[in-house]
Known about the structure:
The protein is mainly alpha-helical. The protein is about 50% helix and about 5% strand.
Amino acid sequence: MVPERGLPAESAILALPVPQGPGSPQTGTAAPLAALEALPGEKALRAVTAWLAESRASINTFRTYRREAGRFLGWVRAKGGNLDEALRTVQPSDVSAFLSMRGGKGTTVSNRLSCLRSMFKALIADGVVQSNPAREVQAPRGASREAEHHRAIPASLLLRVLKRLPDDTRGRRDRALLLLACNNGLRRAELAGLRLGDLRLEDEDSPSIRVRGKGRRVDILPLKSATVRALKAWLDVRDQEAGIAPRSPVFHSLARGRRTRGLKALSGAGVYAIFKRYFPKHSPHCARSRFCSDCYIRSDGQIEVARVMARHVSSSTTQSYVQVDRVRSAAVYAPEYS
């Protein structure tokens, strides 16, 4: 984990381990930090490493920030000289040049810019730099997450898909997965991360699931009767070869691996593929937008209720999911999907 002498010290950042789960402290950072303490004039590296180590972002966000921070620091250092001094001279035009060099779609560029803004904020707090050049760079037009990410799946389409699902192994698995996304607003990483020990289906009065979400937070979410029935139907046909221990995945792939010949836990990419099979024009997050919009309607337009149900920190985030005009023009009710 510790970069060898002579290798770019930025590798210590890229070597930071991914957090193991919600609520667990970042581990394994002492070695990279200790290695950096011995490097003269590398206060920036220590600050960025500590910023990542103390981050409570989701696993995917942590990986993105770790990658982009390491690449940006490597890019700055490649220009020569002391890294701390080089960072003090970084201008908004330099940040724009880096983002342009990296390329990518609008949302990808926006995510990278968000990373750099947060990183420079940490550098300011540690006294490495005096200003945040990334804040003066505008996100690219057309990078609105609402346009690409937050289009709610139409209720009529969702009901048609659920009605046509066959009562076989694949159909039962996919029904349970879709209902968790639309009735509880689970993200695809949360769906993929569900374990058998997270299910509380035997409590007839208040069945629930434990969800490990963004920011490594853990929530206990109540389940609707239709979702409980779908989960029980799936568990009846779920292949025990995928595991029966509490840490075994709830959802697994139906195809056996070529090398292992075993059944693998369904990944985030696998969840995405399932949604695309039924909703070619929508992503799993569009089901979350459907959930937020339904919560907003059921609560008579109380955005705070929708925020709590969606487990958002800010109401402004929830507002980007709730497409009030479209929802009201399409339907005046929010059905319980079953």
